[in-house]
Amino acid sequence: MTSKRLCFEPGHKPKCLVIVDDSAEWDRAVYYASRWAIRAGGGVVMLRIIEPEEQTQEWLGVAEIMRAEAHEAAEAALDRAAGRANGIAAITPERVIREGAAMEQLLAVIDEDPDIAMLVLAASPGAEGPGPLVSLLAHALGTFPVPVTVISGALSDQSVDSLS
User: Fold this and answer.
1) Is the pTM for the entire model greater than 0.90?
2) What is the CATH number of the domain that holds 67?
3) The pLDDT of residue 129
């Protein structure tokens, strides 16, 4: 299903995919990916996934308003994340907004961009667990099409600097 990775072929450059969500630790993933991009001479792709709400026919007007608001919120989140990446590495990341189930959209973005070399996620350091996306991916890692790097949300900038 996933296309061949071309990230290190002539005319291509490796890209790191980062999920920008509403978690407190998204910044750690953006920080690591931006530092990685500097060292690898690559780029960063930032993905925001909007999971659709259940809709009934009589609420379609409200659903469209909610969808528009979700897109505005996604753009604002990507603006913050892109500003952070630019401040760290003086790069302008690619921005992608997708609607649908998280895993399905994540795999589709990877499949559509053969330059994506790695997915970077940040795990929550809290007692409630690493977060829903990290937990979801844990079950798919054996068949995932690119390497996955999970950064602890508890790492400082200095700690990430020494690792990237």
Assistant:
1) no
2) 3.40.50.620
3) 66
